Amino acid sequence: MGRAERVVLAYSGGVDTTVCIPYLMNEWGVKEVITLAADLGQGDELEPIRQKALTAGAKESLVGDATERFIQDYAFPSIQANALYENRYPLSTALARPLIARLLVEAAEKYGADAVAHGCTGKGNDQVRFDVSIAALNPHLKVLAPAREWGMSREETIAYGEQFGLSFPVKKSSPYSIDRNLLGRSIEAGPLENPWNEPLEEIYVMTNGIAATPDEPTYVEIGFEQGLPVSLNGSSLAAVELVSQLNAIAGEHGVGRIDMIENRLVGIKSREIYEAPALLVLILAHRDLESLTLTADVTHYKRGIEESYSQMIYNGLWYSPLKAALDAFIQKTQERVSGTVRVKLFKGTATIVGRKSDKALYSEELATYSSDDQFDHKAAEGFIYVWGLPTRVWSEKNRQG
């Protein structure tokens, strides 16, 4: 007895998701498989992917460009939250999963499917992100994960596909597992599984090695309106174009590489390499602009929330009640976060060298030590007395004891 009549499968065109098509129909009795391939700026040709799914037995093969939606609805809110998992990883891959889950649910509802499926294994984070996001969006949909259950090796998976007339052209196999979208690339496995091994230069695509970077720095000015990036070097740009241009500029200078030991949700540590030039620079610039435009208490309180926000994205809780509540708080804080940040890109570093805003809380007249100083120095003595009073009382009581 089949688990589902009609299934929408998240489809990448790779071996696992291609084999999922005949596997779902022949092993699990699914009558119709509809594949969904989403372009999130990864640069793949979608038409060959669409045809490949049909050849593998898909009833329909859906493709679509969701890049604008990806940047506007997922990446930009995470920038407003300065989201860095474990204070390093800007969630470039993780942010794509709740969007893909939403696309799956939308397609399932449109085509009357009673289940959705993905090609995730049982060891990674993505299975959690898909399963939980789909449950949050439509708890009545079944979620199928054939690759998590079939127990086949890579060779066995290919052999299984060949039984149904599928061919997988022989090519030099990369030892790495790579995921890419407009925000960046994640690279793992192969030699990288030994955390002592230095990554080879060949794994990087979006960023230059230091030896190949220009010998002169480049300055970029990033404009923000209410926490959202809107311009680059004075030119207003749509979201996708802004990220694309900044990826190229920062990547040329070797900015955006991350090499970290990461704590996965499933309880294991993994060695991950990321390239996310634009995303890292935008978070750096946005956070600096907040320091100019937000009050101290809001800034400090928001920093605590940002870690929780990052963990929720990483752990697949984009569509959770807590994240929705934090979104409301973050959006309120962003009302004043408008201005321009100047960033110096040079030899693998991005350094903030200037910032300005019409909503700045910084006052040069109060901060200066010149003759223009307007700060009331005499008021400091009384303030210090009151501020230090608890400490003074504590000290006197301890001395008496």
Automatic annotation (TrEMBL):
SUPFAM superfamilies: Adenine nucleotide alpha hydrolases-like, Argininosuccinate synthetase, C-terminal domain
Ranges of residues in domain Arginosuccinate synthase C-terminal: 176-394
Pathway(s) where this gene product acts: Amino-acid biosynthesis; L-arginine biosynthesis; L-arginine from L-ornithine and carbamoyl phosphate: step 2/3
Binding site for ATP: 10-18, 38, 119
InterPro entries: Arginosuc_syn_C (IPR048268), Arginosuc_syn_N (IPR048267), Arginosuc_synth (IPR001518), Arginosuc_synth_CS (IPR018223), Arginosuc_synth_type_1_subfam (IPR023434), AS_cat/multimer_dom_body (IPR024074), Rossmann-like_a/b/a_fold (IPR014729)
Database matches in CDD domains: ASS (cd01999)
Gene Ontology molecular function, alphabetical: argininosuccinate synthase activity
Pfam families: Arginosuc_syn_C, Arginosuc_synth
Binding site for L-aspartate: 121, 125-126
Top-level taxon of origin: Bacteria
The EC number(s) this enzyme carries: 6.3.4.5
Catalytic activity reported: L-citrulline + L-aspartate + ATP = 2-(N(omega)-L-arginino)succinate + AMP + diphosphate + H(+)
Residues annotated as domain Arginosuccinate synthase-like N-terminal: 6-166
Compartments (UniProt record): Cytoplasm
PROSITE patterns assigned to the protein according to its UniProt record, in alphabetical order: ARGININOSUCCIN_SYN_1, ARGININOSUCCIN_SYN_2
Annotated positions binding L-citrulline: 89, 125, 129, 177, 186, 262, 274
Keywords: Amino-acid biosynthesis, Arginine biosynthesis, ATP-binding, Cytoplasm, Ligase, Nucleotide-binding
Gene3D superfamilies for this protein: Argininosuccinate synthetase, chain A, domain 2, HUPs, Single helix bin
Record field: transmembrane: none
NCBIfam families documented for this protein: argG, PRK00509.1
HAMAP family: Arg_succ_synth_type1
Subunit: Homotetramer.
Assigned protein family: Belongs to the argininosuccinate synthase family. Type 1 subfamily.
Protein name, as recorded: Argininosuccinate synthase
Classification lineage: Bacteria, Bacillati, Cyanobacteriota, Cyanophyceae, Nodosilineales
Gene: argG
